[in-house]
Specification:
It is a single chain. The protein has 164 residues and is α/β, with parallel strands linked by helices. The chain has a single domain, classed as Metallo-beta-lactamase, Chain A (4-Layer Sandwich). Helices cover 21% and strands 27% of the residues. It contains five helices and six strands; from the N terminus they run H-H-E-E-E-H-E-H-E-H-E. Strands 4-1-2-3-5-6 form a six-stranded mixed beta sheet. The two termini are 34 Å apart.
């Protein structure tokens, strides 16, 4: 489940009303923390760690950023339990290999970050999930799709990809 501060912000209206009030009454949402990655800031900030011709011979250490991984669990009164994103999965370093793990290093992954444990912390079970929505196919959003064994074959997966 999300850290206390983040959940407090959600409870306090961090999601704008024009987004949060379009759900039917009785809809509930939980932000699930499913681990942390670390990467060079150049992957997340335009121009981050960019060198210039005038600085090309100077030694400097690139700055790294912590990247939280989240999923959203939605209990919808009509559609049932919906999981938005799946995180990168329990076996991320082995499945994605050492090259990708070197770029996006998992620096924090504890038992409560496992998808089934995060879902159970909300009072639901993995088997309750009726739909999985994947916003895009980056490893930290969809890499754990294989993980929810209780969902495989019993949950509908929708993938939202931007128009090209």
């Amino acid at each position: 489940m999300a850290s206390g501060k983040i959940q407090e912000q959600l409870d306090g209206g961090a999601v704008p009303n024009h987004i949060s009030n379009v759900c039917p009454e009785g809809t509930k949402m939980w932000l699930l923390e499913v681990g942390w990655l670390e990467a060079d800031e150049g992957f997340v900030i335009r121009g981050g760690n960019t060198s210039l011709a005038s600085t090309k011979d100077k030694a400097f250490c690139n700055k790294r950023r912590l990247l939280p991984m989240y999923c959203v669990l939605i209990d919808h009164p009509i559609e049932g339990v919906i999981l938005w994103e799946t995180g990168c999965g329990k076996d991320y370093p082995e499945v994605w290999g050492p090259e990708l793990s070197d770029v996006f290093t998992r620096v924090k992954y504890e038992p409560h970050h496992e998808l089934d444990a995060a879902i159970e912390a909300t009072g639901h079970k993995l088997e309750d999930v009726k739909k999985i929505i994947i916003g895009h196919l980056h490893l930290d959003h969809a890499g754990g799709e294989y993980t929810p064994e209780g969902c495989r074959g019993s949950a509908e997966t929708l993938t939202l990809l931007p128009s090209m």
